[in-house]
Amino acid sequence: MQIRFDNSYARLPEQFYARQAPVPVAQPGLVAVNADLARELGIDPAALSADVLAGNEVPEGADPLSQIYAGHQFGNFVPQLGDGRAVLLGEVIDTRAQRRDIQLKGSGRTPFSRGGDGRAWLGPVLREYVVSEAMHALGIPTTRALGAATTGEAVLREAVRPGAVLTRVAASHLRVGTFQVFAARGETQALRALTEHAIQRHYPDADGPLDLLSAVTAAQAELIAAWMSVGFIHGVMNTDNMAISGETIDYGPCAFMDAYNPNKVFSSIDQMGRYAYANQPNMGIWNLAQLATTLLPLIEGDQEAAIDAAEERLHAFPDHFSAAWLRRFRAKIGLTTEEDGDSDLIQGLLSRMASSQADFTNTFRDLANKLDASDEISEDGAWASWAEKWQARLARDPGDASAVMKAANPAIIPRNHRVEQMINAAVEGDFAPFHRMNAALATPFAEGPDTAYFAAAPSPEERVARTFCGT
Ligand code: AMP
Ligand code: MG
Question: Any idea what the Cα angle at residue 324 is, between residues 318 and 281, rounded to 5°?
């Protein structure tokens, strides 16, 4: 069985990567193969053996390499990061004629490993598998999980952990940080080649660097609004973790909120709330400003004119974000038409949810379910005035509010406590919870036998306050 690789990144100039084969592991063990995704990529799922997924066998036609990039980590510029524990096997053209990267993450040391061991442990591999696949099922652009394998090797983190490798599929692994590495070195030719490559790959209608900036700005505004609509907190929106394609990438200390709190932070190393839920659009534009900076040498005119032109493109972000946010939240409360007061109506709901620490996912889903059932909501004093305004607004909307809301408000999301429980079971050798989660989260808007189990908010003992970066 062949994987039909066509490796365009490997044809870029040599300073874009280091050729690097995955480092073989002691004992590959198959955890999961995403058969549907494999077929979408034109790959026979049977070809994805434990040896292939662990990196012990490199498929024919692969041209393994580690990509170079830089990045602002929590605001501090690091001039060289790069794939410290990943190799890009190559690219395939999928059944919808889209070019997709296939990457092994956790595949051993590379020239960009710095002090790291090049490995990943099972917990973060399964977290990324479950959460990225759930994100896809929620209809939100994301990298995907093609498979996971254990290595039979121990990895040292806060404790000794079982090693694993994730096979990640992405529209590309081009990051804001990929532009930054060449900009920081003053390598304008490389920047030009990268810009060309990114445009061809993701935004073929874009004409030059300013159009690329506009396209990425629009894609990120859409993406972050989509995250907000499902209560998702990325956790490490460093510029090396923002994809040019507009896909969600790098599921580290990420989480979906349980109780609604706009200032919610999960990452244990985010002391300042830089990547808090409600700060994500601000950080989006901050990252895009870094991308704009890298593109300045490619923009026509003197520096001042280039800055003005880039700023103008960046300034599209707030309006685009607000429009995307409003479109999604209108649907969440069942609206199909637009009125001036809609934003206030939505904010009114969110502020009540914040003060009563209402569960984000379940509140919206309950509203969808109870819509025409009773006036239960109006009986609750704190919510009565809001419910009244909402009912009046619904009465002026010709749409099928219940159907709209059920399609916009998932019944289940990968709740952090279930993810933790799933990881703890897997470490003990029980992968049943992992498969159960994947199965349920494949249809997050539908009610099924497992809906109640995965919809339940954590009990106080189950609550996970922090997600750790020891990935
Ligand atoms: P992340 O926080 O996962 O986005 O990673 C930030 C940078 O650290 C990237 O360049 C990673 O490749 C690198 N990195 C993370 N963990 C390891 C590791 N265990 N070994 C080597 N490099 C790593
Ligand atoms: Mg990263």
Answer: 45
Q: How far apart are CA 470 and CA 402, in angstroms?
A: 42
Q: What six digits make up the tokens of 323?
A: 């429009």
Cα(358)–Cα(363) distance, integer angstroms: 7
pLDDT tens for residues 359-389? 999 999 999 998 743 544 545 677 888 999 9
- Alpha-carbon torsion, ordered 200, 206, 208, 214, to 10 deg: -120
- Work out the pLDDT band at 249, boundaries 50, 70, 90: very high
Query: Among 138, 120, 128, 7, which Cα is nearest to 63's?
Result: 7
Query: For the chain, how far is it from start to end, CA to CA, in angstroms?
Result: 33
Position 384 scores a pLDDT of 85
pLDDT value at residue 381: 72
Query: Which ligand 1 atom lies nearest to the CA of residue 471?
Result: 16
Mark whether 258 is an active-site residue: no
Catalytic residue among 94, 101, 205, 240: 240
pTM: 0.97
Ligand 2 centre to CA of 109 (Å) is: 15
**Furthest-apart CA atoms within the chain: distance in Å:** 67
CA of 181 to the centre of ligand 2 (A): 14
